[in-house]
Amino acid sequence: xxxxxxxxxxxxxxxxxxxxxxxxxxxxxxxxxxxxxxxxxxxxxxxxxxxxxxxxxxxxxxxxxxxxxxxxxxxxxxxxxxxxxxxxxxxxxxxxxxxxxxxxxxxxxxxxxxxxxxxxxxxxxxxxxxxxxxxxxxxxxxxxxxxxxxxxxxxxxxxxxxxxxxxxxxxxxxxxxxxxxxxxxxxxxxxxxxxxxxxxxxxxxxxxxxxxxxxxxxxxxxxxxxxxxxxxxxxxxxxxxxxxxxxxxxxxxxxxxxxxxxxxxxxxxxxx
Length: 272
What we know:
By secondary structure, the chain is of the alpha/beta class. It has ten helices and ten strands. The protein has a five-stranded mixed β-sheet. A three-stranded parallel β-sheet has the order 3-2-4. The chain has a two-stranded antiparallel ribbon with strand order 1-5. 35% of the residues lie in helices and 15% in strands. The longest helix is centred in the N-terminal third of the chain and has 17 residues, at 7-23. Strand 2, helix 2 and strand 3 (62-67) form a beta-alpha-beta unit. It has two domains: 2-147, D-Maltodextrin-Binding Protein, domain 2, CATH 3.40.190.170; 151-256, Periplasmic binding protein-like II (D-Maltodextrin-Binding Protein, domain 2, 3-Layer(aba) Sandwich).
């Protein structure tokens, strides 16, 4: 997991949080932060580290309390809470924030980047800043990007070696029409479920598999619940166009993409 926060932006947020507390006449304040991952997950640890910086630089007056492991609900629920001010900081997935901030849907497109280096160059540059700035009209402030690896597909039916192997499978996707459209274009049946329900969905046979991040400490335990071994998982590893789903698959996916959904090039004309 790479932490992609720009230091100056982070420091601005630290100052902003302290000023918010001061402007409301509150001598000390505990800010609420949400993350659906486990306590030892890198993104949760990063929020904890940010809290230690704020505490240190405010002389202990201000704190961040991190609510991890779905304590405040699934990501869709915590986003609503963040928009109305019940949560101060929220680490969430691009696909879900895209349901509220339309510009973010571009980052959930399949086969968008040629490599991790390409992704980092785009998000660390003017395009990344423009995307973060697009949050404000929708009631949010975009702070930073994290990357957590390419998306993967694992299932309990058969190995995925080509696009045809996906036909007829019921796959969990995030609660996003764009992600559902992608899975339909691949020939599978999408089932929108919060991440916290994947294990139950596999064990009850509601779903055959799931589309999720490769870098996920709980994916292996979810797979075991569905009788899946790591060797049967097919993922787009390292780059969005790798051995398991080659670039020819990306071209076939583009042809199947619903006309009602946004269309972007599989080789974007971005820097890098």
